[in-house]
Amino acid sequence: MTQNVSRAMRGLALSAAVLTGFALLDGTVHALLAQNPFGAPRAAEPQGGIVGWLLAKQSEFYREISQTIRAAKSDGSAVWTLLAISFAYGIFHAASPGHGKAVISAYIAAAALRLPLPEGFWGQAGVVAGGLGAWLLLSIHSGLRQQPRTAALACGLGAVLLGGLLLGWGQLNEFDHGLLALLQSERSPALDSLMVLATRLGDFASQAAVAGLLVALLLLSRQWRAALFAGSALLFTALSNGALKHLLARTRPEVLLDPLHSYSLPSGHSSAAFAFCLVLALLAGRGQPPRWRLTWLLLASLPASTIALSRVYLGVHWPTDILAGALLASCWCALCMAVCERQQPLPALASKAWWLIIPACSALLAAIATSALPEALLRYNY
What is residue 345's DSSP assignment? Predict the structure, then answer.
């Protein structure tokens, strides 16, 4: 029993350390993009839609803390729950200028601690978070120092981590089942609609069409090397994803009324979304200082992460599936960038090229994602 508690505490500590790093990086992005130089508070936002949902979750979170405090007076073990929730909230609250991420992260932490998660979940979560955190921090450190082999380093470390996931996913059952159960416990009709829309953005038809459009627009703008980089990264990601799915033949979770019967690992939605978003971010960072390159990468990861998480939320993928998809795309993007910049760096794209690429790709994705949306909602019934 003591050994299990010790392993769980080590996993929690490791996860907290990695989350601290993520939060500090996210705070840096907000300081670059949204900091008020006079320290004045932000204007009040309307309380409808997503903001209203966040405020409702914030109220629920504070009720959870109050209940835990009352429980701690009679049950000493509840103190550990209170400390864990408060610590997670404090990390994100201190690192970010706004409250949105603090509310979400603290609510997820509270939900995780309140659910009967499988024994061994926190230890496995700590291993996964530690590996991802080490990869990210080493790659970011190398990039900020402008070391010449940053792309090769990111590709090599990512490939090691990806190999570990592909070979060891069977040893992460508690992590997969626990995180899947956590997200399933938070399902609601409103979130279902948003997540189906997000997952539609990562469908094969959506990603194939927008990838072809991106390469065509780069060729039209006479950006030959950029088109070669984008085309090769997107193509190799798609081909290797399909090959690995058939090689590993992992079955999907059985959450939907009519479960999907294709293979699960790695997630095609996750790999395609991360490949497309990272390609855009890497092209946007050409000719920029290291901090702005990091900023573009972090911003590009937000929509890709949303698409990836939608797959677990909808019950069609395990968490390790989407992590493997993200790592696969990251490795191919880094490798293709390293090859394309072997002789000289890629030049920055002209502003007129971006004014053509972003609206065209956004319009195409929106048109495909919103088409046949009612049918998609029925497809993901559970």
Answer: P
pLDDT tens sequence across 196-230: 999 999 999 999 999 999 999 999 999 999 999 99
Residue 204: enclosing H or E segment and its boundaries? helix 204-220
Predicted confidence (pLDDT) at residue 168 exceeds the cutoff of 50: yes
pLDDT of residue 300: 92
pLDDT given for residue 380 in this prediction: 83
CA angle 363, 366, 367 (to 5 degrees): 85
DSSP symbols for 184-197: HTT--HHHHHHHHH
DSSP 128: H
Tally of residues, the chain: 382
- The number of angstroms, rounded, from the C-alpha of 364 to the middle of its chain's C-alpha atoms is 23
- Residue 191's nearest CA partner among 309, 106, 279 is 309
- CA 335/CA 153 separation, integer angstroms: 9
Q: Please tell me the chain's helix, strand, coil percentages from 3-state DSSP, rounded to the nearest 5.
A: 75, 0, 25
Question: φ and ψ at 119, to 5 degrees?
Answer: -65, 135
Cα 137 to Cα 116, 144, 329: the distances in Å are 32, 10, 18
CA 269/CA 346 separation, integer angstroms: 28
Burial grade of 312 (CB within 10 A; 0-12, 13-18, 19 or more)? buried
Q: Taking 70 as the threshold, does the pLDDT of residue 126 lie above it?
A: yes
* pLDDT reading at 78 higher than 80: no
Write the CA distances from 138 to 13, 14, 16, 261, integer angstroms: 19, 16, 18, 38
**pLDDT > 70 in the chain, percent:** 69
d(CA 315, CA 4): 29
Q: How distant is the alpha carbon of residue 192 from its chain centre? A: 18
